[in-house]
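Example for tutorial group B:
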């Protein structure tokens, strides 16, 4: 019978550690992710798998990953959406038809009111882009853009409602 040496145990321990960490990360919050990085670094150093510098690097990386899981406030989402909208409006100009825009907003606001999605910080805003492209998209914070090309494909109000509901 073969003896289990340290070099044979390390891969097994590594796989178990990674599987445990993945499970904990998926079930936990940001602080746990930071802690896992610190614990993983300490275990790696203690077993001789990592140098001190590698352990510190793992700790820094886990803190950076934890920050990506932080929630943004509704106000932040609103301002992010406005920045996205400014970028969109550099490429696509608004369609200058008040009647069509008013109708788009009527259908959109009706859908938003009936939606189970929570109200956004600045409310929902709908705009027609002066483009023949077939496109519709939303930006964070309730900003929804529909191209003239997409509107031409909508044969009736139900089709338009389906497009807007998807974006909401």
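The residue assignment follows.
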């Amino acid at each position: 019978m073969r003896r289990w040496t340290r070099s044979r145990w390390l891969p097994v321990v590594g796989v178990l550690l990674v599987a445990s960490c993945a499970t904990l990360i998926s079930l936990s919050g940001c602080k746990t992710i930071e802690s896992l990085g610190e614990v993983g670094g300490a275990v790696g150093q203690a077993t001789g798998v990592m140098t001190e510098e590698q352990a510190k690097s793992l700790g820094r990386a886990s803190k950076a990953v934890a920050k990506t899981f932080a929630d943004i406030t509704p106000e932040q989402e609103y301002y992010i959406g406005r920045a996205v909208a400014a970028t969109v409006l550099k490429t696509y100009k608004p369609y200058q038809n008040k009647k069509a825009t008013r109708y788009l907003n009527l259908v959109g606001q009706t859908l938003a009111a009936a939606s189970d999605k929570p109200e956004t910080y600045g409310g929902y805003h709908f705009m027609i882009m002066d483009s023949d492209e077939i496109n519709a998209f939303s930006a964070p914070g309730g900003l929804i853009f529909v191209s003239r090309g997409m509107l031409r494909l909508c044969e009736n109000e139900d089709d338009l409602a389906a497009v807007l509901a998807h974006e909401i």
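The two ends are 64 Å apart (CA to CA). Compare this with the pattern of hydrophobic and polar residues in the output above.
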